[in-house]
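Contributing new records

If you add data, match the layout below exactly. Sequence lines come first and carry their own label; structure lines follow with theirs. Keep one chain per record. Anything else will be rejected by the validation script.
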Amino acid sequence: MEMNSKNNKLSSERSNSLDIDEYAFQNLRITAKEKQDLLNKLENEMNVRIQKLKQQAEEFAKELSACCEREINNLPKEIRQLPLDEFINLYHADPAEYFERCIQ
């Protein structure tokens, strides 16, 4: 019972804080030019962030590609030269199985 009243109190405090936030900007008098300037600044900032995220994604993709390339190059040449379907059929797509068979 006590826990339920605490949850209700927290919920009530949250809704009150939302009410304050909701009405905080209601009495501001902003001209159309100021609104447009704010929207332009917001759009510019958004475009900068989008560009930065795209750049980070491209860098990550390049790093991931290079990492995959290194992993492939670490495989023995015999495995790399096998067609994929043959590698899957012979060694069940497991390089460890290839090495075990080579040892035997």
